Amino acid sequence: MKTKYTLIARLTVFLSATTCLLLAFTGQSYAVWYETQGQSVVLNGNKVQAKHQATEEALRQAMLFAGASVRSVQQLTDGLLNDERLEISASGEVRQLELISETWHENAVTVRIRADIFPSQQQCSAAPFSKTIATSYFPLLERQHAQDGQVQELGRLVTARLKQEFDQSAQHAVISSIEPYVVHWQSRQIRDQATALATQTKSQFVLTGVIEDLSVYRPKSNTLAFWQDDTATRNFRLKVELIDGINGAPLLNKTYETESEWEFDRFAQLDASSNQFWQSAYGLALQNQLRQLQSDVDSTLACVPATGRVISINGGNELTVSLGRQHGLKPGDTLSIY
User: Could you give the angle at the alpha carbon of 236 between the alpha carbons of 259 and 283, nearest 5°?
Assistant: First the structure.
C-alpha cells in the first residue's frame, strides 16, 4: 500500500553576520512628518462619529505611507480627538499627532492631520513576506433581507470590495483567490472545508464569511407626528473567520456590524455594483467595515511565517513550490522543508 505524503515548504531567511552589520548601518529609520486627510459621510446626523472616522482614515493613510504599523490607529484616533495634540511615547512609531483642520460640507467632513512617524524596525522575520488568502462569495443567511432594493448579489460584491481593500492597503497579506461560488460554511465541518479550499487554491489561509443581517427598518408614517424622522435605516452584520489552511487552526473570529441610513425605495431595482450604491451612506458604511476587516487580518498575519506547498519534485533534487516573487521571495532566500 502506497502512502502519499504532502510536503510543505516553510519560508525562512538566513542572514550572515556581514549582512546583519550592513542592515544595522543602512537600515536606520528617521522620523518624518506626514500630512494627510480623511473624509467621512455624516450618518444619521452623527457628526462626532463622522469626524472620528475621517480622522481614523487620515491617520491610517499616514501610517501606510510611512510603512508603519496600523494596529493602534483607533486608539491613536481617540487620543488625538480628546487632546487635539497628542504626545505618544509608548508606540515607538508615532511621536506626535496634530489635528490641523476640519472642513464640513453638506453631509460630510474632511479632516487634515499632521503626524510625526518613526517607523520601527520589523519585529519578526516573517513580516516582509506576503501571505495568501483564499475566500469565496459570502452567503446571505437571511435571503429575504435582500429583497428590499434587490441586493441579492451583495455577497459576491462584498468579497470583491474586500479584495480591493487588500490590494490598496495590506502590507502582509493578499487575497489571491476568490472562488466564484457560495460556500455554506458548517460549524462542524469548517476545518475540513477550509483546508480543502486552501489545497485547491494553493493558498496558506482561508477567510470564511457569512452576511447575517441586511434587514431594513422603515418607520411607519404618522401625519400627526410630522416632526419625527421617517428615514429608513439598514443593518449590516458580517461574521468572518480566518483559518490556517494547513492545519485548520482558527486565527481570527470576529463580527463586523453597522447601521446606516437607507435612502433607496423598497421596490428599487438597485445595481449594487454601481457608484450610486457604494457612494451612498450605506455603501460608505459597508466600506468602513471592510477596511477594518482588512486591517485586522493584516495585523493578525504580520508575524505568521509564510508557507507554501510543494507542487512537484523533478529529478529528485529540484522542487516547484507555490511561493514566488509575489510573496516577497528573492534570490538567495532559503526554504526549509518539513
Answer: 75
